[in-house]
Design brief:
The protein is of the alpha+beta class and about 300 residues long. The chain has helices spanning about 15-30, 35-45, 85-100, 120-125, 165-175, 180-185, 190-205, 255-270, 285-295, and strands spanning about 1-5, 50-55, 60-70, 70-80, 110-115, 130-140, 155-160, 210, 215-220, 225-235, 240-245, 275-280, 295-305. The mean pLDDT is about 95.
């Protein structure tokens, strides 16, 4: 067994792992993970991806990587092949990444939100003092007769996404996640600048699929933007809700359901057969809404936040 810095190896050496990982994403979550892996390979071959790989008798058994964003470290991925002892190797890679991040003087927090495949990280998160949150990956089959669109209440206006709403949407996200559990998990939600960076990541970059403006909607009231749902395509015929939120003061009025139903109808009209999303289990109202819409949890995983 040898733990090797990712900057010492090439994407070609890890190709068997990438192929196996992509298969898990496709078969378990209906997600085409290859565009994300292409980014990993690009940075790996540029010797600019931070992380570690585990080699067993010279063969790659697992790898993990992290990125630095200002004051925090973000564990962006960790995968161990089913051909090896996944728990032990996963813990070793996690430990190496965390030890490196904890040793950096400017790091004020470490976030880990990794969907595991046979290599749960709960024990590692507990061992190193991470605060843990259970997250659910939910899936909705887009079959059957679509529900008719309900009229939007007087004084409200629903329209498809337009890029000129980046800044108002960032303000909306910051306000919607004030004192919210998801703001504890992802601190980008806490500031307008962070929320704007988050929006650009999910809309302009392929890490969360290919953004679909035709299935993404903005909800306006007289005073301005009060709700948004953003959707991406993560494989042929499968969409993923990357963000949905409603302004405090307008919550509890069925507007989240209105936005989700608008996105679902749009996806059905475009020929999609499934829609997925992730939600924090502690966000009970959101989980209840998704279950009423027909979503079912197909995978649960732990998200963790560490602060010194």
């Amino acid at each position: 067994m040898a733990i090797v810095d990712l900057r010492q190896i090439s994407s070609r050496q890890l190709e068997p792992l990438f192929e196996e990982e992509a298969r898990h994403w496709r078969e378990e979550l209906q997600w085409d993970y290859r565009p994300s892996l292409d980014l990993v390979k690009k940075f790996l071959d540029a010797r600019s991806l931070s992380g570690y790989a585990d080699l067993e008798e010279g063969k790659p058994a697992g790898y993990g990587f992290y990125v630095l964003e200002d004051h925090k470290g973000l564990m962006g991925g960790l995968y161990v092949s089913a051909r090896y002892a996944q728990a032990g190797i996963g813990q070793r890679i996690f430990s190496e990444m965390f030890a490196t991040l904890r040793g950096l003087p400017r790091i004020e927090r470490v976030e880990a939100q990794i969907i595991p495949f046979g290599c749960a990280l709960d024990e590692s998160l507990t061992a190193y003092g991470f605060r843990q949150f259970t997250r659910q990956f939910m899936l909705l089959p887009l079959t059957g007769v679509p529900a008719e669109a309900k009229p939007v209440s007087e004084g409200l206006r629903l329209e498809r996404w337009q890029d000129r709403y980046f800044d108002p949407c960032a303000r909306l996200i910051q306000l919607a996640y004030t004192d919210h559990v998801d703001g504890e998990i992802n601190d980008q939600y806490r500031t307008e600048a962070g929320a704007l960076k988050f929006l650009k990541n999910i809309i302009l970059l392929p890490g969360c699929g290919q953004f679909q403006a035709d299935a993404s909607f903005l909800l306006h009231a007289v005073g301005g933007l009060i709700g948004v749902v953003l959707t991406s395509a993560v494989s042929r015929g499968v969409g993923h809700t990357t963000q949905i939120c409603v302004l405090p003061g307008y919550q509890g009025q069925g507007l989240g359901r209105l936005l989700m139903e608008a996105s679902i109808r749009a996806l059905r009209s475009l020929g999609y057969h499934a829609l997925s999303l992730t939600v924090t289990s502690a966000n009970a109202h959101a989980v209840e809404l998704y279950e009423h819409l027909g979503f079912r949890t197909i995978k649960s995983f732990a998200a963790g936040v560490w602060r010194p």
